[in-house]
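Exercise 3.2. Students should predict the tertiary structure of the chain below and write it as structure tokens, then compare their answer with the key that follows.

Predict this chain's 3D structure.
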Amino acid sequence: PYSISVFFKAFGVNDFAVIATSFTFFLLSLLFTYLLAKQVYKDKLVAILSTMAVGFNYSLINYATSGASESPFIFQLVAGTYFFSLKKRWSNILGLLFMILMYITRPQAIIYIFGLILYYFLSNFTWKKGLFYSFIAFVCGTTLYTLFSKQGLVAVNQNATTEVLRGVTRDFNSIILIKKVFYNLYNFYKSIPEILSPYLFTLFVLGIFRKLSQFNIFVIFITILAFLITALTIPFYRYIHPVVPFVYIIAVATLSEI
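Answer key:
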């Protein structure tokens, strides 16, 4: 709200101001994609090619030119990850601030917040301690979110898109939930080209098995969690698209090593 108000003051209350806000955050996302790739892989070519790949993603361009809120959210996620990757006290504080902004911006941000917590602990502690602290944070966070937020439970009970729009909910049992998850995951598999580049996704899958780093574990975690939670709740692609910059960074890094 604060960022868009700046553009409203500059351009007036109109569609152009809304689009200008989203497009600005899209450009900032590209900037931090470059910085993150360069920080993680210490390679300018990987950083440049990763930024170009993200910049040419059709869905992200569509968000940027339609005034969608996905652009600022993706910026917050990429920027927060970059600041955590610096492993400094001041950058960790900025990373925490971006996590708070993410939660305020989007309800499903909890998926990626868990991932950022995992990345922070793995980057600042040994693998054993990092995984242990992350597990404790995941259990406590999930419990608190379940107790104090009803949005997730409502989303699980939503079925088809038409029912979501009509506000219809259903009582689900475990069998129906399992069928729903596998049905949505199968549709995601068939629709990979609509979510991200299938070629880069293949390179990503190859890359995560070549070398397990803190960054790779973080990206694997948020990617799997994003697909599973989206399949369990409301199967909209926009809930998965925030993983695109991270998948593309690993994919390009893998390509450069072949």
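Discussion points: The chain is about 80% helix and 0% strand. The radius of gyration is 18 Å.
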